[in-house]
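User: Run a structure prediction on this.
Assistant: Running it now.
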Amino acid sequence: MRKLVLMLCFVLIAPAAACHRSGGASSPPRVETPTPINVHRAIHAKRHAGLHLWRSRNNDDPLNVIESENLGADWDCDTSVSCTHDYLDLLERAESYAAPVAEPELRQMFREYGLSPPYQDPIPAAELRDDIIDRLNAWFLFDGYRERRLEVVTTAIEHTPDGVKKTLLFRDPWVGAFKGYLLLPAGAGPFPSVVAVHGHGQSAESYLQDFPEVLQLQRLGFAVLVITLRLDNADEHEDRLCRAFLRRGLTMLSVHVYEVLLGRKYLAHLFGEQTAGGLLGHSGGSIDITVAIRVAAEAFDAAVVDAVGYFIGDWNAKIIDEAVPTLHPFHDLINDFSTAAVPVLQVPYGYVGAWTSIYAFFEEHLEEPGRCSSPGLADSPDCT
């Protein structure tokens, strides 16, 4: 029998960091304030209906991606590890979804997370998805993300022997602006694609420097989108903003997972929703991916991770985004990839000795979408 001791129903714990508003010459990205809905009403509706299926069965469900080109433009963020203004704005805009938690209660949750034994009995995929989103208090982010307006500005184009490298600036109504690099193979496409997610202390640029083997995916015919996660440096900036989110019953983990979903959404816009898409994570980026494939399995066809999360932390030390004690009882289920609705390859940390296996895995699962043969999805409406 499932057992779970929850200190608070909607208390969520995740990391983020705070930083000053950067003072560049560019103005902050224009974002539209999302229309509020009642979070509790949304939860009940999703419990019965589930998230929107990823691949639309008709042409009346646009992804609402607006592309433009502004070569030479720059991001108004001095450094991604200390750029907090968009996330502070999110806290203000999401006030109606907040479930404030007093600091003594947060301290208690961080002390006592281990008193609740992890779930061992299997939970149906849809129920686990709902449980995760409930405890992240993130329905307002994940529900309707496909239809929400996403602006993508190309700010640089570089032609290389392997294809094209584009520098992109993403603008979303909730999370503001973040940067990414798109590596396109030579040829016209459409291409199967991979969203690569870096770990703490990295950016999209440093991830490619640390792991140049990622470029081989481009040579093999995959489009690769590497996104930069802000406030992902395990430092005082992430710690401060993390605590600000937690005190409101929100989490930075859900924000970073949402940004991963936006990356996949953009690739689906480029190449079509039926074109296969995968995920490649390192360290904390892998933990984001383990959550992404649980809350939006329909969006992905394969995932590679080199780490898993236990969603724990020390309130008296620096907090990072995966410190979410309310998720801790689910960590065994989240990390049991035999129950995942998409194929998952777990490799040694830092991909040590694993690149040949990674290439073969993506070639096997992304050359032809294999999602509908995966456990738990074969009978879904999107596969029949």
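Confidence is low (pLDDT under 50) at residues 1-54, 56-61, 369-384.
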